[in-house]
UniProtKB/TrEMBL annotation, chain A:
GO terms for cellular component: endoplasmic reticulum membrane. Belongs to the EMP24/GP25L family. The chain crosses the membrane at residues 168-187. This is TMD11 protein. It comes from the Eukaryota. PANTHER family: TRANSMEMBRANE EMP24 DOMAIN-CONTAINING PROTEIN. The keyword NADP does not apply. Its main location: endoplasmic reticulum. InterPro entries: Emp24-like (IPR015720), GOLD_dom (IPR009038). The keyword Acyltransferase does not apply. It is found in: Endoplasmic reticulum membrane; Membrane. It is a single-pass type I membrane protein.
Automatic annotation (TrEMBL), chain B:
This is Transmembrane emp24 domain-containing protein 7. GO terms for biological process: protein transport. It comes from Syrrhaptes paradoxus (Pallas's sandgrouse). The keyword Cytoplasm does not apply. The chain crosses the membrane at residues 182-204. Keywords: Cytoplasmic vesicle, Endoplasmic reticulum, Glycoprotein, Golgi apparatus, Membrane, Protein transport, Signal, Transmembrane, Transmembrane helix, Transport. Residues 1-30 form the signal peptide. It is found in: Cytoplasmic vesicle, COPI-coated vesicle membrane; Cytoplasmic vesicle, COPII-coated vesicle membrane; Endoplasmic reticulum membrane; Endoplasmic reticulum-Golgi intermediate compartment membrane.
Amino acid sequence: LALYFHSGEREEKCIIEDIPSDTLVIGEYKVQRWDIHKQDFLESAPGLGMFVTVTTPFDEILLSKLYGPQGRFSFTSYLSGEHTICLQSNSTRFVAFAGSKLRIHLDIRVGEHFLDESVLQAKDKVNEVNFRLEHLIEQIHHIAKEQNYEREREEKFRKTSEETNSNILWWAIVQTLILISIGIWQIKSLRDFFISKKLV
Amino acid sequence: MPLRGFRAAGLWGWLPPLFLVALAACAARASEITFELPDNAKQCFYEEIAQGTKCTLEFQVITGGHYDVDCRLEDPDGIVLYKEMKKQYDSFTFTASRNGTYKFCFSNEFSTFTHKTVYFDFQVGEDPPLFPSENRVTALTQMESACVSIHEALKSVIDYQTHFRLREAQGRSRAEDLNTRVAYWSIGEAIILLVVSIGQVFLLKSFFSDKRTTTTRVGS
């Protein structure tokens, strides 16, 4: 758990993961609170926990749980799209408490498949290669799933571009028609007006 | 996209070090995070790195405004190793000159109202070998060599895939922006056109209307 960042006590920090469906995502975090007296981050603050909320691309809650100062959470996406993982501490202190902040260590792993550790302990040549091959097969499956998802997204992209194209064309035609008809109406209206005013 | 050597784009580099016994001091780590950077905000990330470790920071802006962000990388002494303003995408490799906590920050402070979605990938250390050479008596068998080359190739594929995914997300974001703008502009222009042309006619008519019908009259 090496990478960390700072956050306010009641602040919610979110990260976005754009993943295909049926993908396992495992997250590990560790949170430390700044101590005013020691001027350092405490190793573990009692009672400090983190709310972990995972939202699907359609704003449904996939996971919403309170974990301790150190925890691991996981979820499997059943839809493909942008999932949001949000972390917020359960601290009930006032926000106005000066100088208070949290240090959050975070590690998110996407598409990983935990392989059986005991297989490696056997240290048998054949088994080790077997083990590696299984790992490679998992990697390939993950790549294939991503490619499939990429196909969906490209289709959406293409549809948007084509829609823009036809919108522009349609609008150009409508605008020309409006101009011509308004022009005709203007001239006709003014001509009738001037005739009625006996100016023409 | 320039051809780059193998690199664990995702966190695939994690698995081998987890299981291999007593490996090198520099355990390879890779963190990739996509987050939203609100306007006028700055987000910093810290990582403890051992001396001599080769690290790579790569970032890309996916959505928002002009798709650019400020990035800054500092070593434990506060010396700025990398600083770029308003960059869309960049990759920076450096070797840690000393032990300590390195800090890198992304800033959107120049933007007044656009949120940016930023992706970064911070790779620390090289990936350890798939089959460690310390307990070996013989050279790698053909099977093992094949495994190693497949693994390297797959890492490269994952890397390219990630880059492509980000580029596509960026392109799609622009296309959707364009579509919305075209829709709003068409409606707006149609309304303006109608209002102006109908208004013109009535205004012109009002210039020629009889003095007798007007309410404000010059006293005679």
